[in-house]
Amino acid sequence: MKLKTILMATAAVAIASPAAAEGTLNIYNWSDYIAEDTIQKFEEKTGIKVTYDVFDSNEVLEAKLLAGSSGYDLVVPSASFMARQIQAGVFQKLDKSKLPNIKNLDSAIMGNVAEFDPGNEHGVVYMWGTTGIGYNEEKIAERLGDSAPTDSWALVFDEGNAAKLADCGISMLDAPTEIIPAAMNYLGLDPKSKNAEDFKKAADLLAKVKPHVRYFHSSQYINDLANGDVCVSVGWSGDIFQARDRADEAENGNTISYVIPKEGALSWFDMMVIPADAANVENAHKFLDFLMDAQITADITNYVWYASANIPALELIEQEILDDPGIFPPDDVKEKLWVAPVYEARADRAINREWTRVKTGQ
Ligand code: N2P
After folding, report:
1. CATH 3.40.190.10 fits 130-266+336-360, yes or no
2. What's the average model confidence in pLDDT over 78-83?
């Protein structure tokens, strides 16, 4: 190095704050999806300063990625969305030599997601879960009696039931590729179909239920379910368990349960990936490897109630979580789960068009 370069480098270090000595890392993850102390532990261990932003929708994340220059070094799309984003060239390949902990990941699950990322070249599984129904036991029983179909999509997709639950509040995710296929499944159609006619049939059903739905939103329901402001939410497994936790802690008399409906449900895998234009690639790998540490990922599962794909972590996850069929479903339930297909541009437009029709009531 020439003397002038050395002097300039020294000057740059001198003006940087001590915390920034190891640089920065910009993460964009789902809300309510990490333990309270994960980021702090990583910063203390590495000296890297993390900026952590959150979203609650694959569509929002995708819009940022496709616009380019997101400024993020790590993002977390669901596998089916990741697949078409890989096609669009928005991610870079991982340098697995920098990820020794990748050996901890369940090879069966990584094999499943290889369908979306051949060779697992771009992403590693962060957490996985299902899209089912969370409900307030007392409020449902008051309105539908003891024989309420709490094990079925009929609880929310049957117009009569929905009408009776409207006053205590129904919410659904604002996620077209999760709600429309769930309605298709309830109608006896293949939930993985990409046929516009099938989307339309599901949307027609949802349009009938819509007047009884208080809102479509993908994160507000955690607190609302916990506080009794809604009584049934079509939502994500771990979020509903977090609602149950919050209600228990508040001792507010709301008993929240999560069910994977007997007709079946979507299971999804959320993937950690590095945008092609990330500025802090080295630090992104450090964070990925940190997350694949058994204790770190077990701490996250113990906090957010989503299933980890990390084999040694299973020893460190609370027994109550391991035993819960809503989080680690037994084989007979697993058989009824489907994984989202990749919606190419045409199918994506069709499903979004139907979703807009549902939401605007047309
Ligand atoms: C956490 C959301 C879970 C991720 N709030 C859904 N893919």
Report:
1. yes
2. 98
